[in-house]
Design brief:
The complex is a heterodimer of chains A (about 500) and B (about 325). By secondary structure, chain A is α+β, with helices and mostly antiparallel strands. Chain A has 16 helices and 12 strands. The relative contact order of chain A is 0.09. Chain B has 15 helices and 11 strands. Classes of the chains: A alpha+beta (about 500), B alpha/beta (about 325). The structure holds adenosine-5'-triphosphate and magnesium ion.
Chain lengths: ~500, ~325
Amino acid sequence: MSVTFLVESTAPPRPKPGRSRRARARTSLLAHGEPLVWLNGGALALALAMIVGMLSLIFGQGISTFWPQPLYAIHTLDGEVRLGELTRAEVFQLSADELESLRQRPALHARLVAAGGSTRRTQMRTADGFVWIDDRTVTKVEKPEWGLVVERREGGRCYGVPATLLPADDSTKPSSSEPGAVWRTFTAWRRGTTDIAYRGLVLKTPDDNTLEVPLANVVRAYPANQLNLAGQLGVYASRWWEFLSTAPRDANTEGGVFPAIVGTVVMTFFMSLAVVPLGVLAALYLREYAKPGLLVSLVRIAVNNLAGVPSIVFGVFGLGFFCYAMGASLDQLFFADRLPSQPTFGKGGLLWSALTLALLTLPVVIVATEEALAAVPGSMREGSYACGASKWQTIRRIVLPRALPGVMTGLILALARGAGEVAPLMLVGVTNLAFELPIDGTWPLVHLDRKFMHLGFHIYGLGYQSPNSEATRSLVYTTTFLLIALVGVLNLSAVWLRSRLRKRYALSKF
Amino acid sequence: MTFPMNSTSVLSAEPEPQAPRPADGDTAASPDSAAETRNLPRLGTLRTSGGRLEAIARGETVTTEDHAGVALDETVLEIEHFRLWYGSKQALFDVTLKIPRGKVTSLIGPSGCGKSTLLRSVNRMNDLIDTVRIDGTMRLNGDSIYHKGVDVIELRKRMGMVFQKPNPFPMSIYENVVYPLRIDGVRDRATLDDVMENSLRGAALWDEVRDRLHESALSLSGGQQQRLCIARAIAAEPEVLLLDEPCSALDPIATSKVEDLISELRGSYSVLIVTHNMQQAARVSDYTAFMYLGRVIEYGLTPTVFTNPHCKETEDYVTGRFG
Ligand SMILES: Nc1ncnc2c1ncn2[C@@H]1O[C@H](COP(=O)(O)OP(=O)(O)OP(=O)(O)O)[C@@H](O)[C@H]1O
Ligand SMILES: [Mg+2]
């Protein structure tokens, strides 16, 4: 043996090209690990930064919206006093001319020059709407001690110092006019610890006008500048509760999003109910029954491409097929008495929305299920066949249970995609304001034909269709935050379910 | 379980199977083989002087060297002129074997010679592979296996199969064992309990799992899993038990347990076992068939095949000179 080795080692050395190739490889950038690691790591970091940035913006804005802000009374040059909450500020640059024109006000001029000519304008929410106040025009800023924020059922928020509480019975004399005393009487009345019935709260606005708010119209009131941390937290929590548990009011600019939460959850639920069986059966056919060949490959490609079709296309299809074709026929068969003025299924509704989204999310379920089916070891199938099981018995008792976690993965992906989808829903059943929930106590409990509210569409409505877009600006963030949280919760519960299934059908450790 | 007195019960008790010497008691059970063994010189003249490998290479048909003793037992499974192709590649050539009832028959041979293929042909597992074509006949207790009208599902229920790698199902131990009954739609709890306990006892697993019957079968160790698979295979009381290298994934202790088990099953079940382990074949089986390149070269009583084979190729293989 050793002899042959010796003989081989005396063979002539390898020709040159080999050596030079090695030399070149050493100089190539791609041959070094380090730069590629940095490139890949950098791409990941960038992606993460974008995601984290988006989430933190939404999270930060969404979570701070309901925190009670202090009340300011701002006096301006034109002699007006405005009372309200500051919402945001913008810094901008003055031109030299503008700066020059302020020489008559030396103090202001000096300050602006010191600031390099940059000044600010502040947005304030007053009872009459949102106003921009230029810093240059401000003469005095106060924090009125007893400034009260009153959230009304109609007409938005108003601000003022409590002047009197009007008794329901005119013969009773109004309460004292000292703001603190009025506030205490008001809270006593709210808690129900006073016998006197009141009908209205009179606020004194800073421009010495009075404003009477009927008590029935008061949703919440608090003296913003008097609140300690506990008080602020109380207001914050009660606003969140109102947001989560009540219906919107004031043309969706105030109030809560409860119907939208219910609508989103119920629609997503029915979507899952439709997409999982359909997707699993389709995947079973493709993977277990169909003979592999050109046709199956084509179907598979088509299914994958379906995932890339713009969602609005599904909306159009849903409208044309589900609402106008299927819905109309259903109406003619079963609900002919209400035609033509009141179609039952021949319009957008919960059922058609769920089915449209089921169609939209079908590809991910099919693909995930197919992968899960393919991952079931052949030895298990063989074991089952060897026991004399039929194909269907093998699938039902061995393959499907093993593939279930994979199916859950498909469902999770479908949830992530479907719960936040808005565009197709706009055509097949979502509405701005639904007076009835899709689920309620009246027969048949679940109303598949009803239109429903959806958080995603609510965001769109708040942002672009609101009569008062400044007022809804912060609600957009809060609702977005809520939608993300909801999708997160739905996903987490599916993940939890999947991990339970995994544990149950855990892979052998051996 | 009863131990039928036959030639190999002595052999299987031998601790050192490398040099199994037929005992004198052999004459009672199988006189022919004993006579052969005794009358032949050590390197017998009957032994054909090889040349088979070359013949196979030339594409000639090689007939099986059947020992006379094989024909004496009652046959449970009859394989006649069986040929099988994977696509255009032929994997089995004219295989003819008679598997005796109530005995353990082992299939040995080098890797890729078609042992698994033959075993899987018996319960038509090869039907699952699209490219497989077959020719020839097989009969289980007289019923044709490959006849057109045969219900494969019913056929497979008459056989139990254990694979090389343990393949317990992702369900409880209990459900694993009663799986063959479940698919038959048996619901009666008492029956299921009964079968489950008997099978687990039969597979020598009962004592280890009696307290955890409803735990996942995947929590068992590899050896326990394999015995569970055996329990599953015998749950439906099959007419033939097909074992494909049942011990290849097991440690020596688990292996010896499975071997003991096979010895116990002898008599009540007809066992066809594939193994790479010569000692194992010698220890557990009554008959041995040596396969090479898709042909059965020699088939006979285990002691004869191992100590005094008729074919030179067999001798080379069992003594480890090739393969
Ligand atoms: N599914 C298949 N498709 C094509 N050829 C196959 C297939 N299965 C087995 N073969 C071929 O058939 C021949 C016999 O294979 P088989 O698995 O029966 O061998 P074996 O004797 O069991 O080997 P081992 O001892 O390694 O398990 C081999 O040449 C193998 O390549
Ligand atoms: Mg094999």
